Amino acid sequence: MKQMRRAMDSAWVVAASRRIQQTLLARPEFQAAKAVGCYMALPHEVQLRTVMETCWEQGKPTAVPAFNTEEGRYELAWVRPEDKLAQGRWNIAEPDARTRAGLTDLDLLVVPALAYDRQGGRLGYGGGHYDRMLGSWSGYRIGVAFDFQLFDRVPMGSQDLPVDMVITECGAHEAAS
Fold first, then answer.
1. Spatial distance between the Cα atoms of 29 and 113, rounded to a whole number of angstroms
2. CA-to-CA distance for 90 and 40, rounded, in angstroms?
3. Is 125 left (phi over 0), alpha (psi -120 to 50) or beta?
4. Domain harbouring 45, CATH code
5. Tell me: the pLDDT tens digits for 37-90?
6. Which neighbouring-strand residues pair with 100?
7. For the chain, what is the domain count?
8. Which domain range does residue 73 map to?
């Protein structure tokens, strides 16, 4: 999956990401959310800049993962359009000056992955960072991915947290129970 994503044409990633973001922005879960958690995308991931800009335009506070070196884990930090970003762990951009965001402050979290399944199963990058960060949070989780990353089943462990919906460039897929 990593090799397939790295081989994607950057223009295709931009176009597919645009369709995914349009679908996400039109969802009632996004419309109802007062505060949104996103992620700072790597070049081969679904890009979310338009989602974050829309949040800021609508006055919705927006948080992204930031690595806490003292605790050795990711946490959420508020990000604003004027914030300076620094390269964090694994070259992922993070707010340079951090204001910690609590999960209870968020209504919706947009989550990346290597792959998803139709039941909401999420195959992450192997570090368990999102699962540890989210813990028992019960807010609405939307996974975003390219359509080739959506499968009938992905392997899930007991600590793996599912998403409520997966959005690809082909549309929204409610997690099947």
1. 20
2. 12
3. alpha
4. 3.40.50.10420
5. 999 999 999 999 999 999 999 999 999 999 988 988 889 999 999 999 999 888
6. 77
7. 1
8. 2-174
